[in-house]
Design a protein that fits this description.
Elements lengths: L13 H13 L9 H9 L21
Length: 65
Amino acid sequence: MKLVKSDWRSCLSSQILTCLIRIILQGPSIENFDPEAAITLWNTSALRARSPFQAPYRTDSSSSV
């Protein structure tokens, strides 16, 4: 249960909690799950282009304008 409901997701509705528990019980084990298809779908279905391999934007407080 700690994998489903945690401090970060403490306000889950009963419908979402039921869906997450069903996925945990009936879904593939972590050892057998290949995330490549999900990652590809996530990268291609965005409204804006994603750059997952680009370094995050960093503000440098010491730079001069």
